[in-house]
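Throughout our pipeline, every protein is held as a single compact record rather than as scattered files. The record that follows is passed on verbatim for readers who wish to inspect the format:
___
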Amino acid sequence: MRDRKTLIVGVVGGSASGKGTVVGRLLDHYGNRAAVLRMDDYYRPIAEVPKDAEGEANFDEPDALDLERLARDLDRLKSGEDLHIQSYTFNQPGVEPEPLHIPALPVVFLDGLFMLHDEGVRKRLDLSILIHATPETRFERRLARDQAERSLTPDIIQYQWDRHVRPGDIRFLEPVSHLADVIVDNDRAGDPDLTLALNAIDQRLL
């Protein structure tokens, strides 16, 4: 245990809004004062993930994640206790989970989708940053990313977008987007302006 506070900064946004890119820049800026915890590592086993009408696993619903465990782990970080968890493999054949060490540094960024929707997680955030990009921009990014990085076909990507991603946006993200403390516009090519986000973090670190 440590006798100093860990600031939990949530970085939220829809799929392919650029959360990971922004978190990467924030980590570069704060260096050895910051770490990241990813909500993706709190997905439930595939047998417990909600299914759509066609029987396909839907990872774009809050019930797909163990948010109670996440809330408990955020409390541990805020009390100065490091986390030791395992990565989530998304059930990829032959991929073994990796042990992850998330130190309780002065800043821990929480990267994920549903942190504003879930009250238990939301109330543990010291600051929330919403990464904004239009659905059209996000779909184009997801289409390119998932073909290159996840070997998905355009038909599968379109199916997931229409059945899972956009309905999840409309139900669980857009109604609570106004609760974010800072909004970062990431709808255009190039690096987004992080000035407001950095100022807000620095003010809370004083």
Remarks:
- The mean pLDDT is 94.
- The radius of gyration is 17 Å.
